[in-house]
Amino acid sequence: MELGLWQTASLSLLILVVLLLPLTVHKVEENLEAFLFCCGIFAVTVSKSWSGSLVLTALEDPIKITLAVFFAGLLFKYCNKHLQKAAKKAVGFLGLRTTLFLIVFLLGMLSSFITAIIAALILSEVVMMLPINREGRTRTVVFACYSIGMGAVLTAIGEPLGTVVLSKLSGEPHNADFWFLIEHLGWYILGGVVFVSLLASAIRADTIKNAPGVKEDAAATDEHSVKSIAVRAGKVYLFVMALVFLGDGLKPLAQQTISKLSAGWLYWINMLSAVLDNATMAAIEVTPDITTRSLTFLLMSLIISGGMLIPGNIPNIICASKLGIKSKEWAKHAVGVGAVLLIAFFVILSAVMK
Asked: Got the DSSP string for 210-277?
C-alpha cells in the first residue's frame, strides 16, 4: 500500500522512538516488552495493516520460542549442578579466557545446525556458571549473541533469515540450495565469529571472580524456580509478538523506501535491523534478480546490526530476558562492536566485490 505523508512521518518518528526511548527512559527500559507491544499496535494501526491473518501470526509465531524457553528452563533447573561442575572443570583445565573463546566460537559455528534459539538457551545458562561478575557476563553474552546471529544465518535451519533468503533465491538465476549461504558468506562469517570470540576471551581482570557459579545479585537467586521460568517465558512471548506487529506495521514504509536503494545505501540503512526483524527486512529486499554483490552487502549488514540492541535478534531477547540485561547495558557493550564490524566489513566487501 502507498503511505500518505502523515503515515510516513508517524512511522519514521516511531522508529526513532523505538531506538531512543529504551536507552534514555528508565520506565521504558524496565517494561521493554510492553513498550514494544504498544509501538507495534501503533505501527499496525497507522499503516492500516490489521488483518485476521496478522493477529493469528502474532499469536502463533512466539509459541515455539516460548515453549523452548520454558522447557529448557525446566531442564536446566535439574541439570544446574552438573553444569556447574562441567564449567568449573573447563575453566580449571583450559583457563577462563580459552573457555570463553571456545564457548563463543562453538555456539556461533554450531548455531546454523542446532538453531539460534537452542544456542542462546545454552549460552544463557552456561555463562551463569563462569567466574565472572555481571559486567563480564553481559559483555560475554553480547559477543556470543553476535557470534550466534552470524553463524545461524548460514542455513535454513539456524534462523528465519536464512530460510527467507534461500526460499526467495531457490529458482533462476541463483538456484540456491542448502549450501548456498555457506558458499557465499562462509569466510566472512567465520572471520566475524573469530573476531568476537577473541573479544570475549580478552576479558578484563576486574570482571573475574574467584569461583564459578557465584551469583552476585538477589534477582538471580530464584532464577530456576518454576514461577521465574514461567514469567520469563511469558515475557519472551510478548516480546516476539510485539516484534511481529512492529515489523508488519513498518513493512509498508520499508517497501516504499528501502527496497529502492543501492547496495551501498542498503548496507547502512539496514542498521534498522537493530530494532526490526531481519527476516522481514530480507523479505522486502531480496528478489530473484538481486546480484551476489548486493546480496552479500545487505545480508552482512542485517546480521551485524541485529546484535546492536536487544530487539534486533532472538538470541539477544532470550539472553537478556534470562539474565536480566537492560537496554543500556546491552548497548554499552554492543553498539561499539557493531560499528567496528559494520565499517570493517563495508571496507572489505567494497574491496573484494568491486
From this structure: SSTT---SGGGTTTTSHHHHHHHHHHHHHHHHHHHHHHHHHHHHHHHHGGGS-HHHHHHHGGGGGTS-
pLDDT at residue 210, as a whole number: 57
Side-chain-side CA neighbours of 146 within 13 Å: the count stands at 35
Instruction: Calculate the CA dihedral of residues 139, 272, 245, 18 and round it to 10 degrees.
Output: 70
What is the maximum alpha-carbon separation in the chain?
A: 63
| Terminal Cα-to-Cα distance of the chain (whole angstroms) | 35
Residue bearing cell 528501502: 258
CA distance 74 to 230: 9
How far is 81 from 245, CA to CA, in rounded Å? 39
Q: What is the pTM of this model?
A: 0.85
Q: At 292, which amino acid appears?
A: T
Alpha-carbon distance of 94 to 262, in angstroms, equals 47
- The whole-angstrom separation of Cα 323 and Cα 216 is 12
Assess whether pLDDT exceeds 50 at residue 321: yes
Please check whether residue 329 is in contact with residue 217, taking contact to mean a CB–CB distance below 8 angstroms: no
Judge whether 154 and 185 are in contact, CB under 8 Å. Answer: yes
Measured CA to CA, the distance from residue 143 to residue 140 in angstroms comes to 5
Q: What is the pLDDT of residues 61-90, one digit of tens each?
A: 889 888 888 888 888 888 877 777 888 888
C-alpha cell at 264: 551501498
